[in-house]
Amino acid sequence: MSYDVKPFRNEEQTFNEFYTEVKEIEKRDSVLTSKQQIDRLLRPGATYFNLNPFEVLQLDCETPLEQIKKKYRSLSILVHPDKNPDNLDRAQQAFEIISKAYKTLENETTRKKCLEVYEEAKDRTDMMIVEKKKKLKKEGKYDGVPEDDPAKYKHAIYVMVMKLFADIERRRQQLEVRDMEERKRKREAEIEEEEQRDLQKEWQKNFEESRQSRVNSWHTFQAGSSSTSSSSSTAAAASTVKSKKSKKAKYTSFNPPKIKPETR
Fold it and tell me: What is the pTM of this model?
């Protein structure tokens, strides 16, 4: 795996301050009270650290599953809302954080991914130490590095683990946003297609409903044309008969001239 951790350089100071404060509390109270556990999980900036389920349950990454279960039970009892009626809302939030962390580690696949983050953090830290030593030797200033101290080495890995978990979460959120935008785009396209289909259906329905009206209008038009043609024919025939009668009458009423007697 490979993760980009550059965005977290400016968070180094905030992280170290928080880390120091948390460790001081844990050192002062080997067994934190309910209120202290709730405060630990919900203090400002805790969201950044709660991405690591081992950190939430205050366990080493090499802790076996059986021990993880025991720690989960003890912490869940401490922060359970029923045990904190005076701090109900915050207790519920803390309980959900612990439950989520346990579910992550209980599942073999997700626990393996978390362990891979630790391996990546160790590899990156080791590379960082090597590069730091090379640079100091090249400058003639090498006299060891802080990470030569086992406690500081462990802290360096811890810091890198937190950064990698945060980077994974950022990537997850980015993918979620892109996925949501893609689903929105597809849904808008589906809605547009549905609207087009509805418009087509409405047009077809109106076309079918008006079909009979158009047929009736055409029949009426045809009937009107036939009636006009028949009337014209009748009138023409009547005119022809009248003309013939008129001619016949003309010829019938002809009177030849009378013949006068011959005079000698």
Answer: 0.60
| 3-state SS, residue 255 | coil
User: Where does residue 126 rank: exposed (0-12), middle (13-18), buried (19+ CB within 10 A)?
Assistant: middle
Cα-flanking dihedrals φ and ψ of residue 50, to 5°?
-70, -5
Residue 260 amino acid letter: K
Find the length of the chain.
264
> Do the Cβ atoms of 163 and 8 come closer than 8 Å?
yes
Phi-psi sector, 262: left (phi>0), alpha (psi -120 to 50), beta: beta
67-97: pLDDT as tens digits: 999 999 999 999 999 999 999 999 999 999 9
Contacts within 8 Å (CB) and 24+ apart, 120-123: 120/1, 120/2, 120/3, 120/164, 121/157, 121/160, 121/161, 121/163, 121/164, 122/157, 122/160
Residue 69's closest CA among 78, 57, 60, 61? 57
CB-based contacts of 59: which residues, under 8 Å, 6+ apart?
67, 68, 71
Residue 114 and residue 120: Cα distance in Å, rounded? 10
